[in-house]
Amino acid sequence: MQPVALVTGANRGIGFEIALALAGQGYFVIATARQPAEARPAYVGHSVEVWELDLRYAGSVARLAERLRRAPGRLDVLVNNAGVMLDSGRRGALSLDPDVLRNTLDVNLIGALRITQACAPLLREAPAGRIVNLSSSLASLAGMGSGTPAYRISKTALNALTRILAAEFADTPVKVNAMCPGWCRTEIGGPHAPRSAHEGADTAVWLSTLPADGPSGGFFRDRAPLEW
After folding, report:
1. Please, what is the angle between helix 112-125 and helix 58-70, to 10°?
2. What is the arithmetic mean of pLDDT over 37-62?
3. What pLDDT sits at residue 67?
4. CB 47 within 8 A of CB 28
5. What is each CA distance from 148 to 11, 12, 46, 182, 213, in whole angstroms?
6. pLDDT attached to residue 190
7. Is residue 79 classed exposed, middle or buried when 0-12, 13-18 and 19+ CB atoms within 10 A define those classes?
8. How much is the pLDDT for 184?
9. Backbone region of residue 54 per phi and psi (left: phi > 0; alpha: psi in -120 to 50; beta: other values)
10. Residue 5: is its pLDDT beyond 80?
11. Partners of residue 31 on adjacent β-strands
């Protein structure tokens, strides 16, 4: 049977590039978007379906998971790409609005947890399940600094979730890793970033298609380990 990949937040940018790359490698890809009608035209001619998903709402996650169980009835890859940066700039934690932090965590951490919990049964049934969490070098404690504190905190927490999930799936074929795409020309990265979204997607695609002896519980950029 054709392997199935689910990529969240895949209406544009890095998520879009991940979805196209996995479809090109023979996966049937489900790309999620809050407004699927706006995303569908870009995928015409590719083995990709666009489904509605808003990670902020448990009901939206539950509906997608139920649809996934009905058909195609399997899941081999989950890419937690959907994310927000609501505090871009140089402001520090002392001036951070707690509501901005709460709203950031709701998508970048809790949303990723919601969809992973919902998809876990199908991933356990897959012969080689893979979970990839889109993180950032801004989340690295080794190089932690000021600026964009809500985003940094949310991605550091996502890294912690990556390690926890890798431990919980350790007795299964499922591998769980986090990655940093680098500074890319996306809605978050802006038009002057040095990397394309296609370049940023490469490590996520690599982690999605790891062989049985590949790593789990790691943090990567450009297919090389990053410091936590």
Report:
1. 20
2. 96
3. 98
4. yes
5. 24, 22, 36, 16, 36
6. 84
7. buried
8. 87
9. beta
10. yes
11. 7, 50
CA geometry: angle 108, 109, 114, nearest 5 deg = 110
Could you tell me the CATH number of the domain that includes residue 101?
A: 3.40.50.720
Task: Single out the residue of 28, 115, 30, 108 nearest to residue 65, CA to CA.
Answer: 115
Please state, in angstroms and rounded to a whole number, the distance separating the CA atoms of residues 94 and 15: 32
- Return the axis-axis angle of helices 149-168 and 98-105, rounded to nearest 10°: 30
What is the C-alpha separation between 96 and 98, in angstroms, rounded? Answer: 6
Confidence of residue 187 (pLDDT cuts 50, 70, 90): confident
- Nearest CA to 146 among 195, 193, 91, 194? 91
pLDDT value, residue 87: 93
Q: 3-state secondary structure string, the chain? A: CCCEEEECCCCCHHHHHHHHHHHHCCCEEEEEECCHHHHHHHHCCCCEEEEECCCCCHHHHHHHHHHHHHCCCCCCEEEECCCCCCCCCCCCHHHCCHHHHHHHHHHHHHHHHHHHHHHHHHHHHCCCCEEEEECCHHHCHHHCCCCCHHHHHHHHHHHHHHHHHHHHCCCCCCEEEEECCCCECCCCCCCCCCECHHHHHHHHHHHHCCCCCCCCCCEEECCEECCC
Active site residues: 151
Range of the domain at 91: 4-225
Q: How many domains does the chain have?
A: 1
